[in-house]
Amino acid sequence: MQLFRRTPYVCPGCSRKLVSSLRRRNLSKVTFNDFRNTPRSFSHARTKRPFRLAIIGSGPAGFYTAYRVMQKVQDAVVDMYEHLPVPYGLVRFGVAPDHPEVKNCQEKFEEVASSPRFKFIGNVDVGHDIPLPSLKPHYDAILFAYGASKDKKLKIPGEDLEGVYSARAFVGWYNGLPEYANLDPLLGAGEEVVVIGQGNVALDVARILLTGVDALRKTDITERALETLARSKVKSVKVVGRRGPMQAAFTIKEARELMNLPSVSFEATDSSLFPADITKLPRVQKRLTQVLTKGSAASASTASKSWDLSFLLSPKSFNDSPSNLGSLSSIEFEKTEFTPDSDPFDRNAKVTSTGRTTTFPASLAFRSVGYKSSSIPGLAELDVPFDERMGIIPNDPYGRVMNPQSGPGALTAGPVPGMYCAGWVKRGPTGVIASTMDDAFASADAIARDWKQQVPFLNSDNSGSTGMGWDGVKEEAKKRGLRPVSWEDWKMIDKAEKERGNAVGKEREKFTNVSEMLKVLDS
Amino acid sequence: MSITHPSCRIVLSAISRSARSPSSSSRVSLSQLRHIHTRSSNWYPNRASSINSQRWKSWRALQIYEHAQKLPSATFAAFARSRRRFSSTPISRHGHLTPPKPGEELSVTFVDKEGQSHSFQVADGDNLLDIAQAYDLEMEGACGGSCACSTCHVIVTSDHYDLMPEPDDDENDMLDLAFGLTETSRLGCQVKMAKELDGLVVKLPSMTRNLQASDFESK
Ligand SMILES: Cc1cc2nc3c(=O)[nH]c(=O)nc-3n(C[C@H](O)[C@H](O)[C@H](O)COP(=O)(O)OP(=O)(O)OC[C@H]3O[C@@H](n4cnc5c(N)ncnc54)[C@H](O)[C@@H]3O)c2cc1C
Ligand SMILES: NC(=O)c1ccc[n+]([C@@H]2O[C@H](COP(=O)([O-])OP(=O)(O)OC[C@H]3O[C@@H](n4cnc5c(N)ncnc54)[C@H](OP(=O)(O)O)[C@@H]3O)[C@@H](O)[C@H]2O)c1
Ligand code: FES
């Protein structure tokens, strides 16, 4: 008799070969039983059934948390809800098409999704299509990983003029986000563009506007975006920040990429904004300064397009012209200066207005001052607060949702049982995939630890969760006429997109509206 | 079928043997198999200390078996094929390490974030990400070794830092984003083992980026 049988380690490559070989020999159904009985660590003492986790959002935060929870709680079963029929969040709809290597994380997500303990439920917008509280009875925990689906506004006059776009809309448009499929920005309106904000999204926008369209043809940028970009008249892009170069939010790799674009020159930055002796700067700032002061590979005399970084300018108003009412023609900025107590070369230096202004002509402007998370309907019913000012679900740094009313005393905050968050909705809309991953791992570790320590979870105060997960929710979905998309469905959409891409010599041609995606499945 | 790992070959041939005659499967006990597996892995470098938690790769191997049972065979084959298909650029990571030639083994030690050391004998040319992943150490490699994510950050703690070819601009640019950057930080996917690096010791930085004040910094 064998009590403990561990799965022998077989490397993934060999497993794959074995699997396909057995399949060829029609043997796949036999013998695998032997390998299933790995010791189940962490089985929850309270119940015999598995730990049931609902994850809302299928971006990196959702997937990395699922991965880690499934690894740490060996009987965890995860249902991932996604409002679009397609997964991966900003990896699909944010990451620039000319950065395909960044999207390699999808490989890991696909591995997660291939587990029988994982279910993808796409095309279900939690809070809108289906009430959030209807999930509660059927899960032990809910993880909010729904990212940031809005963006910050500047709240200055003229923000709604024709020709003023949000970077989120523009990025969504070239990446095929259904919400912005019809944006078709007026890239033929003029030569001068201003991007407001100096984060990496601003540099993504500048790079896509300045890159020769032929260099994008093989990427997964939409055909529609390629056509519009091919007709673009844009010649110069100003990327404007309200502070100085040492406070800019973009990272060196993205700046270097712009410096290396063929036939695009960089207009040098005022050298007084850099310290006289850059060798004294910390490594990161020093290297960035070197890139900025060295400038572009292309020279102004031969380049056909140009860009620059303008500093210490805070946007005041977007203006139209009498000859073209309603359309952007210039942007007025207030000049700023460092506050007397700030070191201009410190990362956290602050600025204040000088009262003086300057105006740049522009026929197009992109507002790139950050994304923003919002509340979803039903949070309050679950005692989950939302901090509108910070745009996050309040949490301890480990991702446990905190409610000011849940603590033991009258004035103390405490965790809301069974409620967790990860990613941009947990810490705000900043950070690359690597930081989102770390953050998701921290949330997953907290969930695993809490489950092991038998702290209260969802429904702990009554008879406990039904443990049914999606099976308990799907009737509700059916009643509302929803068409949930499974992982197998997504794979069909994925295949169809790749076939469409193949036909035009690119990696993939995305469907840009939900009905097209569903047509692949239901026709 | 070409199974490349000799060690895996033994396990797998036992599985398929029992597949042919299900009744005999009980005769090949799995503990026996495991025994064979470890004993036969003569090329497969021995680990100085074992990592007891069942990590991702063995979990994944298990999932393949579970799939084998549950899914109709067509889906099953599709699953088997689908693993790599998704990447949008070629991935330098591969499932296997090159077995070192006898007498040419190079030693490398990873100190994990709990401070535990894991030493391996590896071949010239293997990169640190591949090695760490082959042994289920906690190194993510989110971009698949394309120098685009910094999740494979390691800190060189032995005297070998200066013996390595200098990091290029791309690597330095990603290192600038790594949490807990030190003077001897490198990206695991960019460091290849070489004779001069025999005895290399690297530390895996603990993942505490999300708890750093900088993330909550108000501007
Ligand atoms: C334009 C842009 C480019 C970027 N490029 C890079 C890069 O090159 N490299 C890098 O490392 N990082 C990059 N990042 C950062 C990276 O994308 C983020 O760190 C990461 O995606 C955040 O993950 P998340 O899961 O929190 O959110 P998201 O990726 O936004 O995922 C949230 C998911 O939740 C879904 N959702 C929202 N509401 C609901 C609801 N009510 N019900 C169900 N589902 C819902 C959304 O559809 C989405 O799929 C970029 C970010 C942006 C904005
Ligand atoms: N390639 C990549 O790795 C990549 C690509 C895209 C995005 N990302 C990541 O995604 C995250 C989000 O990027 P992001 O660019 O949206 O945000 P971000 O990095 O936070 O940058 C926002 C920019 O907007 C400015 N800003 C904010 N409010 C403003 C206002 N009222 N007026 C003028 N300027 C204002 C900020 O300046 P202040 O500093 O003065 O506030 C800052 O320069 C970042 O962490 C980024 O690194 C990474
Ligand atoms: S694996 Fe991404 S940088 Fe090394």
Question: Explain this structure to me?
Answer:
The complex is a heterodimer of chains A (523) and B (219). By secondary structure, chain A is α/β, with parallel strands linked by helices. Helix content of chain A is 28%, strand content 18%. Chain A is built from 14 helices and 17 strands. Chain A has helices spanning 12-24, 60-72, 90-93, 105-113, 167-174, 200-210, 223-230, 252-259, 283-294, 424-427, 433-452, 470-479, 487-503, 514-522, and strands at 52-56, 77-81, 118-121, 141-144, 150-151, 164-166, 192-196, 236-240, 264-267, 305-310, 313-321, 324-338, 351-361, 364-367, 371-372, 400-403, 414-421. A six-stranded mixed beta sheet of chain A has the order 3-2-1-4-17-16, covered by helices on one side. Chain B is an alpha+beta fold. In chain B, a hairpin with a 5-residue loop joins strand 1 and strand 2. The termini of chain B are far apart. Residues 1-94 and 209-219 of chain B have low confidence and may be disordered. Classes of the chains: A alpha/beta (523), B alpha+beta (219). At the A-B interface, helix 1, helix 2, helix 4, helix 8 and helix 9 of A face helix 1, helix 2, helix 3, helix 4 and helix 6 of B. Flavin-adenine dinucleotide binds next to helix 2, helix 3, helix 6 and helix 11 of chain A.
Layout of strands and helices, then pairs:
The complex is a heterodimer of chains A (523) and B (219).
Chain A: H1 12-24, E1 52-56, H2 60-72, E2 77-81, H3 90-93, H4 105-113, E3 118-121, E4 141-144, E5 150-151, E6 164-166, H5 167-174, E7 192-196, H6 200-210, H7 223-230, E8 236-240, H8 252-259, E9 264-267, H9 283-294, E10 305-310, E11 313-321, E12 324-338, E13 351-361, E14 364-367, E15 371-372, E16 400-403, E17 414-421, H10 424-427, H11 433-452, H12 470-479, H13 487-503, H14 514-522
Helix pairs in contact in A: 2-4, 2-11, 5-6, 6-8, 8-9, 13-14
Chain B: H1 6-20, H2 30-40, H3 56-70, H4 73-85, E1 106-111, E2 117-122, H5 128-134, E3 153-156, H6 169-175, E4 185-187, E5 200-203
Parallel strand pairs in B: 1-5
Antiparallel strand pairs in B: 1-2, 3-4, 3-5
Helix pairs in contact in B: 1-2
The structure holds flavin-adenine dinucleotide (FAD), NADP nicotinamide-adenine-dinucleotide phosphate and FE2/S2 (inorganic) cluster (FES).
